[in-house]
Amino acid sequence: ADLGTALNATYLTWYVGGQQNWFAQTNTTYDGVLAAQSGPIAHNEQSRLQTTVTGPGTLSFWWKVSSETGYDYLRFFDGTNELAKISGEADWALYSVSLDSGTHTNTWNYTKDYLVSTGQDAGWVDQVAWAPDWTPTMPAITATKYDYADRIRITWSAIPSANDYLLYRHTINNSAQAQLIATVTSPIYDDYGVVPGTVYYYWMKARYYATVTSFSGVDTGYRNLLAPTALAASKGDYTGSVRLTWVAATCATSYQIMRSTSADTNTAVPIIETGATSYLDTTAVPAVTYYYWLTSRKWRPEGMFTTPFSVGDSGWRRSMAATDNAFCDFDGDGKADPAVYQRATGRWMVMMSGNRYQTTTFQLGGAGYLPVPQDFDGDGETDIAVYSQATGQWIVLLSANGNNSDTASLGGPGCIPLPRDYDGDGKADPAVFHQPSGLWKIPFSSRNYALVEGIFGDSSYSPCPADYDNDGNTDPAVFQVRSTIMGKLGYLFAAQSPNPPVGYAIRSWTIGTSGQTVPQDYDGDAKADPALFDAETGLWSYWPSSISSTMPFSLTIGGVGFVPVAGDYDGDKKADPAVYQESTGIWIVRLSGRNYVLDTVVLGGSGYEAAATLPYGLP
After folding, report:
1. Which of 7, 47, 378, 405 could join 427 in a cystine, given CB atoms 3.0 to 4.6 angstroms apart?
2. 216 and 146 in a common domain
3. Quick check: is 103 in a domain?
4. Lowest mean pLDDT among 44-53, 69-78, 387-396, 549-558
5. Counting Cβ atoms within 10 Å, is residue 615 exposed (0-12), middle (13-18) or buried (19+)?
6. Per-residue pLDDT at 616 exceeds 60
């Protein structure tokens, strides 16, 4: 190390002289780091250390000597004037002197006489400080507010003659407790050691040699929060909501979710503020694309920190009308759950896919009640529900209300219960089809359950409602086999409308003749596909809406004694052909997400019917 470093005064120029030079060493120091020591001289020799300063000001230092008392000395001079000397075994002592205006040559000189050496025969100097008389006008300090997401920038006007600046920081307005965070030579500093959403107080001191000013005035600054990242909105994964997930932003205490039906951020409105990193938007309407953005937020006494918008993402809520997943998704994970119902006792058993297919039991219904599970409260979970054909009574366990029961009255003898989401509000409507007359009765949940009625079909038709046009509304539909000159043909008619019940347009398909109608979204385009299941042969045929073809896709599953229980069992947004055999309790599923490989499970058995079967007709 050089002498300037050893003496803690690199801002001064140091000279040495005599027979041996002073040098930096670590064995004998005042500050425990470094000090300067005189050179190893002989009798009648000297070792000098020297610097020059310009007054007025105060020069101070610590010194020490180990020598022959009264004969060998460490002396201090201002020019040729000896101001102080020490001899013998003198431990570290502070010496300070005020120097007037002008140039001062200051010298430390260790000298020996002609005879005798005792002790370590050396002198030491440490912690030299030259503090000129200097009282500059302190400039105002300025700290940025919100300007940067990764730092706070502090600036001030340069002070003439200043060697450097000392910057202090605290989270409260108390300079006495402030911590020194940086020493800089330019009047600017970028403080990266700050966290978002916290107010910091800054002060500055200027230094000229060893003279340090008092604190400047204070200013506050704060780094902006970062917006959360990796926002992802589900795209048809759930019938009850759009699921949002994101990665937390450091120090954010909450996130404001912004939503629009346009990709323009100027149209976005806040829908909720949450401290979590996920959210289920249950207010989203099925079959509508929504655009989402987030802002990070953190409260402070001066107001709320809020970031600009995050990178957005779009998502949409799956129409349960298209897939009828609400038939059997009792845990809301986007997968159909095998479920059975014992009519004699009213006992339900459901294998919850979201809980490793553990069986959960419920009690509702009994003799005279049919199972009619659907999502009646719009929370994305199928509700346990039953219907009495004798009385028209509906009883529902609402999952959104802690499975508390609710009742309704609609239907009666001759009426087939067909609960679906006919108005596209995400809630099933407890509708019935009076097969002898073809009368549909639908209480729209979006209209405070106002009853809408209409004739569509008759006793020769089988009802098969589903969302065939992907408008989010279940379309009343019927199927009939007719004799023509070309033989028997199957006709499916759907009453479609973007605003039910006004202005229905009738659409028809010509399909096969063998089997029961099992419309579901088999190709994943959010439109129900006409389909038939032949219980005699186990032939499953469907006409995908995504392909213009008169030929169906066909596969074989089940046979005599099996009933169709199609649903999206693997969560790939495509319905999987599936059947259930009551005599054995065997479920067989062809999983579309695994190239329609067969999978089986056992649930139920004798006396247990499938809780959600797709053939329609009077029992």
Report:
1. 378
2. yes
3. yes
4. 549-558
5. middle
6. no
Q: 358: buried, middle or exposed (CB in 10 Å: 19+, 13-18, 0-12)?
A: exposed
Terminal alpha carbon distance of the chain: 100
What is the mean predicted confidence (pLDDT) over 144-159? 92
308 is in which domain, residue-wise? 229-316
Q: Mean pLDDT for the chain?
A: 91
Residues 264 and 335 in one domain: no
The answer on 268 and 369 residing in a single domain is: no
Mapped onto helix, strand or coil, the DSSP state of residue 555 is strand
Q: From edge to edge, which strands make up the β-sheet containing 462-463?
A: 462-463, 477-484, 487-496, 505-511
8 A C-beta contact, residue 311 and residue 574: no
Task: Please name the residues in contact with 27: beta carbons below 8 A apart, sequence gap of 6 or more.
Answer: none
Single residue among 221, 242, 271 that ends a domain in this structure: 221
Task: Assign residue 310 the CATH number of its domain.
Answer: 2.60.40.10
**pLDDT(356) > 60:** yes
- DSSP code of residue 330: T
Q: What single-letter DSSP state applies at residue 470?
A: S
Which 3 state secondary structure label does DSSP give 240?
A: coil
Which residues, in sequence order, are CB contacts of 141 under 8 Å at separation 6+?
Answer: 154, 155, 156, 202, 203, 204, 216, 217, 218, 219
How many C-beta atoms lie closer than 10 Å to residue 139's C-beta?
Answer: 16
Strands 73-78 and 89-111: antiparallel
Same domain, 126 and 156: no
Contact 385, 374 (CB under 8 A): yes
Residue 285's Cβ-count burial label (10 Å; 0-12, 13-18, 19+) is middle
Alpha carbon distances (Å) from 338 to 44, 554, 565, 588: 108, 23, 9, 10
The pLDDT value recorded for residue 252 is: 86
259 with 358, same domain? no
Whether residue 514 is found in the same domain as residue 579? yes
| The pLDDT of residue 491 | 80
Q: Is residue 619 part of a domain?
A: no
Q: What is the pLDDT of residues 250-267, one digit of tens each?
A: 888 899 999 999 999 999
Contact of 526 with 287, CB cutoff 8 Å = yes
Q: CB of 9 within 8 A of CB of 31?
A: no
Q: How far apart are CA 144 and CA 152, in angstroms?
A: 6
- The two most distant CA atoms of the chain are separated, in Å, by 143
> What CATH code is carried by the domain that includes residue 38?
2.60.120.200
Confidence of residue 202 (pLDDT cuts 50, 70, 90): very high
CB 27, CB 114: distance < 8 Å:
no
Write down which residue in 132, 160, 191 finishes a domain: 132
For residue 541 the two structure tokens come to 């045929």
**Does 478 lie in the same domain as 336?**
yes
Alpha carbons within 13 angstroms on the beta-carbon side of residue 222 total: 20
Within this chain, do residues 214 and 360 fall inside the same structural domain, yes or no?
no
Residue 595, Ramachandran bin (φ over 0: left; ψ between -120 and 50: alpha; else beta): left
Distance of CA 244 to the CA centre of its chain: 9
Indicate the DSSP class of residue 485. T
Exposed/middle/buried for residue 123 (C-beta within 10 Å: 0-12, 13-18, 19+): buried
